[in-house]
Amino acid sequence: MPLGLIALALGGFGIGLTEFVIMGLLPEVAADFGVSEAAAGWLISGYALAVVVGALALTAAVTRLPKKPVLLALMVLFIVGNLVSALAGDYQIMLAGRILAALSHGAFFGIGSVLAAAMVPAHKQAGAIAIMFTGLTAANVLGVPFGTLLGQHFGWRSTFWAITVIGVVAFFGILALVPMPKRDEAPASLLAELRAFRSGQVWLSIAVTVLGYGGMFGAFTYIAYTLTEVSGFASTTVPWLLILFGVGLLVGNIVGGKAADRNIDRTLIVVIAVLTVILVAFAATAQSPVATVIALVLMGGFGFATVPALQMRVMRYASAAPTLASGANIAAFNLGNALGAWLGGVTITAGLGYTSPIWAGAAITLLGLIVIIGASTAAKRSRRRPQLLQDEPADAARQEIPHPV
């Protein structure tokens, strides 16, 4: 395994930690700055919106530049953003630091996916992307609980200082270990990158990302309420249950990457179908603590098993200029998060109970399954047409030139 993948994973770990650890520190941050819970919530939603902007606008702006220097510059932006957060004297500066860090998020994973795939042979590219995303899953399994613990004991600023240090280590790791792309590969122009979006399969891939990932995240957004109000767990056990969910993410990411290296569309169809069944079963049996624990691990595993395949699929259909499409797919993950969280909130507000976000997530995931089946069928048809055209002259040639006896 190329060591550069470990450096990319470390960068992903820091970025994942920045995104998610604030959820556990929100009460301390709100109290320190004297703002309401709703205002403090913008430190999360503002980050998510900035990820979408960075994934599209920032990636588009740097598409003509060499990828490794751009990735290093993104890590510098990430470091500065977290440093600003650690030193913030008021809420507005804290929010500005969060936005700065978030701008690097989408572009980092978009460009990093392209670099990760370039480090390995074609039949191992999805696995390489999965290794990079392992940093993101590890942030959920280990980083968020320990980051929250650090912030609770030494103040929330200590967590952001720790993330800043992680960013510095990742910067030097990428500098030393990630190879420069081959010199004979000229970077694609912005126009060439935009042409990739003329492919219907690119748009279908992005739609599957929004729906397939959004369904799982919609169920996960309100999971604490499901665990305490429906399953009957004490609130003190929720962090440990979330670690189990994170273990599922970690395993699913690796297994999903290996499966996608064999067949991307088949992996997505099977995994999204199983995820839909898991969400339905979870919603139906959430009153049982044992069934809930099993469903939580499986939801994490199958939910994140889609990620390497989703990222690899959009890059494959935008193969001539994959950087912007890769960044757009990272934005699609965050749009899926927003869609799932919004729809789950709507169902709770409507009085449908704390299992309703899981039912809503199952419905969104089912839509994703329908889209990927349609996209896969269309892709197979388009591959057959050129083959038929190529076969006809070959048959004629065989008729004109007799085989020797």
From TrEMBL:
Pfam families: MFS_1. It comes from the Bacteria. InterPro entries: MFS (IPR011701), MFS_dom (IPR020846), MFS_Efflux_Transporters (IPR050189), MFS_trans_sf (IPR036259). Residues 395-405 have a biased composition (Basic and acidic residues). Residues 384-405 are annotated as: Disordered. Residues 4-380 form the Major facilitator superfamily (MFS) profile domain. The chain crosses the membrane at residues 42-63, 70-89, 95-120, 127-148, 160-181, 202-225, 237-255, 267-284, 290-310, 331-352, 358-379. It is a multi-pass membrane protein. It is found in: Cell membrane. Signal peptide: none annotated. The keyword Signal does not apply. The keyword Transmembrane helix applies. Keywords: Cell membrane, Membrane, Transmembrane, Transmembrane helix. This is MFS transporter, DHA1 family, inner membrane transport protein. It comes from Plantibacter cousiniae. The lineage of its organism: Bacteria, Bacillati, Actinomycetota, Actinomycetes, Micrococcales.
